[in-house]
Amino acid sequence: MAFGRPLNTPVRDWQCRRVWLVGASTGIGAALARRLAEQGARLALSARGREKLDALAAQCPGAHVVPMDVTQPQDYPRVRDEILALWGGVDVVVLNAGTYAPMRAWELTPDLLRHTLDTNLLGVMDGVAAVVPQLLEQGSGALVIVGSVAGYGGLPRAAAYGPSKAALINLAESLYLDLAPRGISVFLVSPGFVATPLTAQNDFRMPALIQPDEAADAIVAGLARGAFEIHFPRRFTCLMKFLRLLPYHLYFPAIRRATGL
């Protein structure tokens, strides 16, 4: 909020709002698609897996399935043009596609590192490059970038994932400064632990773990507030924000105690 005013234009009425959701097939993306469909949004659903998208579209009346791979830069213009031909414009673009593999420093390989960055960072930046000209031409619209609290500060087992999400925080801030004066809203979503196929890889207790439907509700509520950053669950994310304020000689021991690593 800026002096009591929301930083973005609040998104409250989803009836007939045109939403392109990238990374929609599972987890937070699928839950958000179902929630927005319930509220009357017109959905274009993108991810690599056609079968999962078709199953999701069956739960979202009127949804259009437009498969794509965010690691293939040419896919974004192709799908964007298909959506514009269908709707004539787009109101909200949710860039949610991501990947995660627990990775310590000694487990890094060039292939794993590049796959993570291609999906989590370049896969978002390519999406931004594809849609921003259209939003500017419209003079309205919203970009929703899904990051992670793993981007707040260094964590064990996040040698590739954490940096990719930290870069998204910087990206969203930069986009906001450029686009907000021109009528385009930019939202940063920073989830904590959400029960998805990706977090199922973790072999440790995940504090404040929530379900995808809870995450979708938090995102919808944050968009309705016009908040720049939508972070949840707050009992966990606020703690992570506090830890990031500590000097390193306190931050590193606190993280080690918290994770046991």
TrEMBL record:
Keyword Endoplasmic reticulum: no
Keyword terms: Oxidoreductase
InterPro entries: NAD(P)-bd_dom_sf (IPR036291), SDR_fam (IPR002347)
Domain of life: Bacteria
Pfam families in the cross-refs: adh_short
Family to which this protein belongs: Belongs to the short-chain dehydrogenases/reductases (SDR) family.
Protein name: SDR family NAD(P)-dependent oxidoreductase
Organism of origin: Aromatoleum diolicum
